[in-house]
Amino acid sequence: MPVISRRTFGRMTGSGLAAALPLASVIAKEKSDMPSGACDCHVHIIGPIAQYPMSPQRGYTPPEASVADLEALRRRLGVSRNVLIQPSFYGTDNRCMLDALAQLSDSARGVAVVDPDIADAELTDLDRRGVRGVRINLESGENRDPHVAASALDAMAKRVRHLGWHIQIYAALPVVAAVADRIAGLPVDVVIDHFGMAQARDGIAQAGFAALLDLLKAGRTYVKLSAPYRISQQPGYADAAAIARALIAAAPQRMLWASDWPHTDRTPGRKAFDIHPFRIIDDSLVLDLLAEWCGDKAVERAILVETPARLYRF
Fold first, then answer.
1. pLDDT for 175-207, tens place per residue?
2. Active-site positions?
3. pTM given for the model
4. Sign (positive/negative) of CA torsion 197, 202, 204, 205?
């Protein structure tokens, strides 16, 4: 399903594109205590722009982020696997992601964005090339209509059920809560992005959060503990701890961890075709927070290794 609409360091080149410095340079320290097979379950590969043009309908234009940049991040974080997520600005053109999957071989899997009428043969080919799910991206287009979400979920479940794929949805928490019954009744697993977009400042009593916990306890839904900067208002994301711990306590075996690298952002006042720099994020700090939230090495290992290996079929 296509997007349903709405700072790395760099310098501007003559073509108007960003020539980025190594993205891993924003990471403060190198980690050496990661379990073998640890997986970062949400990253994007971007460009080269000349080879992989972005959608004319995109809402913003990020700089480039290469496979080599991702491999540098892997070394810094001590992870050996990634899940590549199709970003909104490429629409349903998955070529950049698929070519990156080929370069990374068996150490990566993908989640695609597809049209509802995609041919079965094309879905089968995507599966052969390492895709394990399909993404519905509502929040990037600021679409918060539960009816749109329900329709998209139903359509995609029918198309991917036979492949054993899941549906990944990026939506605001009120939307997730409004379609919780629909999600619970789907014949496929559902992965919910970025803490379900539960706003940290509103705590675990906020509207919709109980519905998210109930979905987790029912056993067909996963939540990504990813991009705390999208839900937090505090330095070091301290206010996100209560949200993270409540999710982990509800269903530790249904948690996934992800960096959301390279941290795309929309810069207020910039036009869609202007370069919108990445956020500067200390990914090592974010990974350290997972250990604090878990408080248990076995749970941390399950989130980093065992659950993604099962879901993405590593």
1. 999 999 999 999 999 999 999 999 999 999 999
2. 260
3. 0.90
4. negative
